[in-house]
Write a structure and sequence with these properties.
alpha/beta; Rossmann fold; Dihydrodipicolinate Reductase, domain 2; seven-stranded mixed β-sheet; 13 strands; about 30% helix; about 25% strand; binds NADP nicotinamide-adenine-dinucleotide phosphate
């Protein structure tokens, strides 16, 4: 695509707002910016006034790039409108889960599988937030030492469930301080204040949730390895933004702890946090990197390691990755 581009952002929730910020921060070459949501209204963002327009098929006319960050599913923005945008000539990048496993839709992390993006038929999918940060950590290790087994437990921030979930945590925090009855948790399935719960998405086969299956299937697709045996437990914690993950992995070829650390020190987009420090959501929020710390060799199993991976789910887990995908297509 020859810049500057006509760029359209669909959705002004947790991810859509962050996309608008990232586009501006990275000076993405925009000729005209269009912002769409379910209803038209003014939007004030970081001191700037923007106009949100109501979505319609005609709104995609003349757009070069459309970044979808609307809700998912049958009536979700991308399901209803992505084909329309593609038909009118736009490249679509979708943040939702609806098309990620479609064989015709590349699932891309630009630092890891940028070559897949070239095979698109109008749409490229952004992986799930918890998948992106785990794969950013695992991909360089897999390339060098071949990972055969992964066991991951996540500690996921509420912003991963959208802006309404952030409001629910804030309202329950305030009610707790004021010692009044807790307001509803909707869209979260349980009380979130003073709580953690192992339910993200819907329950599916073998008792795993949809979020847990996303981490399995999306990782296999991005790494082109459907033999990698991945088991995930996805847990919601009362943190506003930045997901944490405890990741255990077994490799086929022998490696020392220093080999892994050396790899991560050289990996673009990754920052190794050296002991005695370790990454935490409060320090990762609003940052672009995937932070890795607490790297340990298993005391009992040869060739097995553990690490702690933290990243802002709205930045590298969503908005930043989406804009980086778009940047792959900028030709001077
Ligand atoms: N939050 C994360 O960490 C994260 C990470 C990776 C991927 N994602 C995915 O990114 C997408 C957006 O998530 P979010 O967290 O930003 O959700 P959100 O905070 O709930 O915001 C959703 C936005 O989408 C708009 N929208 C919903 N249905 C629409 C439709 N049919 N047409 C046009 N606009 C529509 C809403 O419009 P109104 O404002 O007019 O209601 C709202 O602005 C989801 O698919 C989500 O799964 C989220």
């Amino acid at each position: 695509m020859k810049p500057p581009l006509n760029v359209c952002v669909v959705g002004v929730g947790a991810v859509g707002i962050e996309i608008l910020r990232v586009l501006k921060e990275r000076r993405f070459p925009i000729r005209a910016l269009k912002v769409l949501a379910r209803s038209a209204r003014p939007l004030s963002l970081d001191g700037e006034s923007l106009r949100v327009e109501a979505i319609s098929p005609e709104a995609f006319q003349g757009q070069d790039l459309v970044l979808f960050a609307g809700t998912e599913g049958e009536k979700g923005a991308a399901v209803t409108y992505a084909r329309e945008a593609i038909r009118r000539g736009a490249l679509v990048i979708d943040n939702g889960a609806d098309f990620r496993m479609d064989p015709k839709v590349p699932l891309v992390i630009p630092e890891i599988n940028p070559e897949d993006a070239k095979r698109h038929e109008g749409m490229i999918a952004n992986p799930n937030c918890s998948t992106i940060q785990m794969v950013m950590a695992l991909a360089p290790v897999h390339r060098r030492f071949k990972i055969r087994r992964v066991i991951v437990s996540t500690y996921q921030a509420v912003s991963g469930a959208g802006s309404k979930a952030i409001e629910a945590l804030e309202a329950q925090t305030e009610a707790t301080v004021r010692k009044v009855a807790l307001p509803p948790s909707d869209p979260l399935p349980q009380t979130i204040i003073q709580n953690v719960f192992p339910e993200i998405g819907s329950f599916q086969e073998l008792g795993y949730t949809s979020e847990e299956w996303k981490m399995v299937r999306e990782t296999q697709k991005i790494l082109h390895d459907d033999q990698m045996a991945i088991t995930a437990t996805a847990v919601r914690v009362p943190v506003v933004s930045a997901h944490s993950e405890s990741v255990y992995f077994e490799i086929e070829h022998p490696a020392a702890l220093q080999d892994l650390k050396g790899l991560w020190r050289q990996t673009p987009g990754v920052k190794l946090v050296e002991e005695p420090s370790y990454p935490m959501p409060v320090e990762a929020v609003h940052r672009d990197e995937v932070f890795i710390g607490r790297v340990r060799q298993d005391p009992f199993i040869k060739n097995a390691f553990s690490c702690w991976v933290v990243s802002d789910n709205l930045r590298k887990g969503a908005a930043l990755n989406a804009v980086q995908i778009a940047e792959l297509f900028l030709t001077p």
